[in-house]
Amino acid sequence: MATNTQSIPYVDIGSQFEPMREELMAAIEEVMASGWFILGPQVNEFEEKFAALSGTKYAIGVANGTDALILPMKGLGIGEGDEVIVPPNSYLASASSVALAGATPVFADVANNYNIDPEEVKKKITSRTKAIMAVHLTGRPADMDALKAIADEHGLHLIEDSAQAVGAKYNGKPVGGFGTFAGFSLHPLKNLNAAGDAGVITTNDDNLYEYMLKARTHGHKNRNEVSFWSLNSRLDTLQAAILNVKLKYLDEWTALRRRNAAIYQARLADKVWVPTDAEKEFAVYHTFIIQTDRRDALQQHLTDHGVGSAIHYPVPIHLQEAAQYLGYKPGDMPMTEKQCETILSLPIFHNLTEEQVHRVCDVVEAFFQ
Ligand SMILES: *Cc1c(COP(=O)(O)O)cnc(C)c1O
Fold first, then answer.
1. Ligand 1 pocket by C-beta < 6 Å: which residues?
2. Shortest-distance atom of ligand 1 to CA 67
3. What are the structural domains of the chain?
4. Which of 195, 207, 257, 356 has the most CB atoms around it within 10 Å of its CB?
5. pTM, two decimal places
6. Mean pLDDT per segment of 10 residues, for the chain of length 369 residues?
């Protein structure tokens, strides 16, 4: 392998533009010339394609992935006095969305694979529990069979925070259709990404769909009347047009992420803990998070050799200042807290070359020699 001293960033969003320049610019110009910036036809087109991809009856575009969790929870009547069980190892919006809907987030620890542990969920159910939020963290589907069984047994909603998992499958079925609804983020760092904030909800529920059509646009039932107060949270036509172009490449990008993951798995499994696809799972590797007791030294070594890395997430949600009122303390979520000390995300984005991934492996191997 030729020595290459160029640095490898953790992620490079700008490099995704050039191969799609013509298609993207044509799509953007079309919207600009139409002047139909709010809920134009491209939004509908995107929603139809996204519902087909998710195997659900409906997809509804909204302004971001956080609103894609808050608004449908409100639509289900989840609010004051209610509890929603969430994992403490996630992006904070998994929990903040529950609080912003008016309910109380209740944390249940994760398993070693980063996803919420069904056995821990069982321990947290009370008479106030209304829903279980499964986060498909890192793009790896959560244990949907076990979580669905628990939800059904207790008459709870199962909610999928699918922000990191577009294209992931469980038992051969796409995420997004396992629960009452799923919220996806299309933020620039996500696997399918807009040129700014964007989000989408998937559901098979007719009532929730009708609610969402109003909820994303102030609660309007028609031009001059509102049924209830709500946010202004629409998916921009411009973002939908961009997403329609990018959707065509999603399978290809997922295959490239999985190829990158396979290289890491083959080369690093004897040095660090590496994530793999377990039975029933088709992971899309939004992140590739390894675990090692020598995490800080390894990260420094990577930096010294021009390789970017990140920590997802250094402060667990239950120990955030914003969560203080919930009364959790260090030691309450042992697996999540252990992971905070040992996790490291390696570059995995789709436009890394095979050679770059091998070079990251070379640098990691050199550290352990
Ligand atoms: C990104 C993300 C969100 C929030 O999405 P935004 O589009 O940034 O609002 C929620 N949950 C998880 C797990 C995420 O990764």
1. 64-66, 90-91, 93-94, 135, 161, 163-164, 185, 187, 197, 199
2. 9
3. 16-247 (3.40.640.10), 249-368 (3.90.1150.10)
4. 257
5. 0.97
6. 72 94 98 98 98 98 98 98 98 98 98 97 98 98 98 98 98 98 98 98 98 98 96 98 98 98 98 94 98 98 98 97 98 98 98 97 97
